[in-house]
Amino acid sequence: MYNKEIRVKLKRIGLGITKSYAKEGAKLSLNIYRMDSEEIDSLINELKNINNTKVIVTKGDTTDENTEKELIDKTIATFGKIVILVNNAGMVCESPVQDMTSEMWNKMINIDLSSAFLTTRSVAPHMISRKSGRIINITYQTAQIGTLNMSHYAAAKAVVIGFAKSIALELGQYGITANCVAPSPTEAELFDSVSGNFKNNKKADLALPHFAKVEEVAASAVFLAADPDGNAYTGQTLGPNSENVMFS
């Protein structure tokens, strides 16, 4: 079973991961924040057409502890267990640090960091009792190298990486892994937001002259959840970025 929290644009990484898990035959429990009933029904039908996927939806704000409890309780009541948790909540807004308000900072931390903590805290007792589980956090390369005018976003995503390493140490004794996926901007994001000259110049700088596609980023989340493929990975951060970020 795949427990996925969607809070980003569904045409991007969130939807890509969801579809990839559906293709693998997972049962999906989705927490959706900003979609109306018609959009939710359309998404459910789209996923059901992939491998006859079983899907349930909880609508609510995952910075709210009541939403978290409803999400976990509903998932276990419907599917009997939670095998995989993917924390993918996120928002983006730009501001130089000298102009950043406390409200902007706190909102970013709540959505991009605290929601991952709340969901993980809620699901951990269940995974501990089962003595198995996979926790996958979607971060971003910004956590590793910083980004201009996005110090709050970089801070939140960097702490998610530290959080994953810590819970990997805590929960490993129960057979639970915790990892991160930190992509660079995907092809879809770049085509939407930057000029052709920028894309061409950036591509020429990469060791692999290729911007990652959404499905290529999603493949990392599938790999980390797979048995036996992801069994030996915990406390790690995978970077599908064509060499845009390199660490030894």
From TrEMBL:
It comes from the Bacteria. InterPro entries: NAD(P)-bd_dom_sf (IPR036291), SDR (IPR050259), SDR_fam (IPR002347). Belongs to the short-chain dehydrogenases/reductases (SDR) family. This is SDR family oxidoreductase. The lineage of its organism: Bacteria, Bacillati, Bacillota, Bacilli, Bacillales.
